[in-house]
Prior knowledge:
Radius of gyration: 52 Å
Structural class: alpha+beta
Helix content: 55-70%
Number of domains: 2
Amino acid sequence: xxxxxxxxxxxxxxxxxxxxxxxxxxxxxxxxxxxxxxxxxxxxxxxxxxxxxxxxxxxxxxxxxxxxxxxxxxxxxxxxxxxxxxxxxxxxxxxxxxxxxxxxxxxxxxxxxxxxxxxxxxxxxxxxxxxxxxxxxxxxxxxxxxxxxxxxxxxxxxxxxxxxxxxxxxxxxxxxxxxxxxxxxxxxxxxxxxx
Length: 195
């Protein structure tokens, strides 16, 4: 019986050890499961944060894209409007210039109707006077007068003459009158220069 008792005790000890081992394994499993749940929770939180950040970035990108499209449309409208204004300015400038010349053309037609020499001369004098006032209205002034000093920025010298009666670089003859508007030369004066 002793042997039976001993066998029972050993079996009981083994069963207790197995139970203890199972309990320990179960505790380890529970601990591991707890750890996994904790890691899962942390992962889900990080995923939620990442998804939220992704959503915010998508919204910001959509907003920037909208701004870009609006800016591109505004620029396109500006470009078209500027081109239209530019074309309009040119057309207005041409119309204003032609309008300023119309009285001159009217006087030219009237002068063409005269057959008497005195009337033709009177009409031509009137046209010359109208031309000067017309150019003055447009802000255009004549230059290149006999006696002026030669300036390469305004005059084009086509002839040169050595004559002690005139000063250095003095214009002694004007072949073609020069015209300018402010500092912009419309036509250079063609002149003959002394010395």
